[in-house]
């Protein structure tokens, strides 16, 4: 995903490996990105890589997303030429919006 820095530099500002080995479960990366005109950040841990299912699961462990959601996890799966993003989240408070902006971000990348 570091290639995204060169492909869409107007959206992805920085990606930094802060723990573990890149491309491995347990790795943690710090992302800085633009979303809705705001500069935001997220530390995300790679929870699982499933080569057979062609999927990767990530979990937010720090950053702006956790201001709205107690838990935020997403899985990217590639099947038959299609990319499927699945977002699992728990609102931090009752009036927190659904993560539509993050879903739109997924479409952009």
TrEMBL record:
<dbReference type="InterPro" id="IPR052006">
    <property type="entry name" value="MLP-like"/>
</dbReference>
<dbReference type="InterPro" id="IPR000916">
    <property type="entry name" value="Bet_v_I/MLP"/>
</dbReference>
<feature type="domain" description="Bet v I/Major latex protein">
    <location>
        <begin position="6"/>
        <end position="106"/>
    </location>
</feature>
<dbReference type="GO" id="GO:0006952">
    <property type="term" value="P:defense response"/>
</dbReference>
<dbReference type="InterPro" id="IPR023393">
    <property type="entry name" value="START-like_dom_sf"/>
</dbReference>
<comment type="similarity">
    <text>Belongs to the MLP family.</text>
</comment>
<protein>
    <recommendedName>
        <fullName>Bet v I/Major latex protein domain-containing protein</fullName>
    </recommendedName>
</protein>
<dbReference type="Pfam" id="PF00407">
    <property type="entry name" value="Bet_v_1"/>
</dbReference>
């Amino acid at each position: 995903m570091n290639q995204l820095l060169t492909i869409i530099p107007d959206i992805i500002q920085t990606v930094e490996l802060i723990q573990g080995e890149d491309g491995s479960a347990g790795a943690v990366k710090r992302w800085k990105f633009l979303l809705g005109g705001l500069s935001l950040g997220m530390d995300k841990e790679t929870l699982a890589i499933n080569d057979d299912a062609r999927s990767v699961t990530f979990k937010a462990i720090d950053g702006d997303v956790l201001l709205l959601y107690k838990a935020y996890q997403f899985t990217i799966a590639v099947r038959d030429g299609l990319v499927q993003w699945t977002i699992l989240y728990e609102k931090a408070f009752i009036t927190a919006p659904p993560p539509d902006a993050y879903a739109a971000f997924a479409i952009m990348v």
